[in-house]
Amino acid sequence: SASLLVKERKGANMELQINHITKEPYNGNNQVELSTSKNKNGFVSSEWLTFLQAKSIGLSIGRGSHGISIFRGFGSFTDNEDGKIKTVSRPIGFARVFNLDQTKKL
Fold first, then answer.
1. In what order do the strands lie in the sheet with 18-19?
2. 3-state secondary structure string across 17-73
3. What are phi and psi of 31, to 5 degrees?
4. What is the pLDDT of residue 93?
5. Which backbone phi and psi does 33 adopt, to 5 degrees?
6. Is the pLDDT confidence value at 88 over 70?
7. pLDDT per position as a tens digit, 30-87
8. d(CA 68, CA 21)
9. In terms of CB atoms within 10 Å, which of 19, 49, 56, 71 comes out highest?
10. Is residue 11 predicted with pLDDT exceeding 70?
11. What pairs with residue 5 in β-bridges?
């Protein structure tokens, strides 16, 4: 389990939610959504993975488990509808991830 901690605004510590395969922490709102889900569902692990990532390492997702939708990535797009050119960042896809506690060995 990851032991990375971040300081929240009110001074409390919050464990970072990370991808089980890459060991990279999730960013922005994904971090908030996954932390909230972890606490709400009583998960012990702070590690998450997609269905395909789980399958690739010999794990299955438990029957009846519900994943969390997260932004998969962001892309920059140029918008000049109003005659002014501006670059905006928008999500380019979504992924559904499951907590490591929701998995079983195949």
1. 18-19, 47-50, 86-99, 68-79
2. CEECCCCCECCHHHHHHHHHHHHHHCCCCCEEEEHHHHHHCCEEECCCCCCEEEEEE
3. -60, -45
4. 82
5. -60, -45
6. no
7. 999 999 999 999 999 999 999 999 999 999 999 999 999 998 766 656 666 666 666 6
8. 17
9. 49
10. no
11. 15
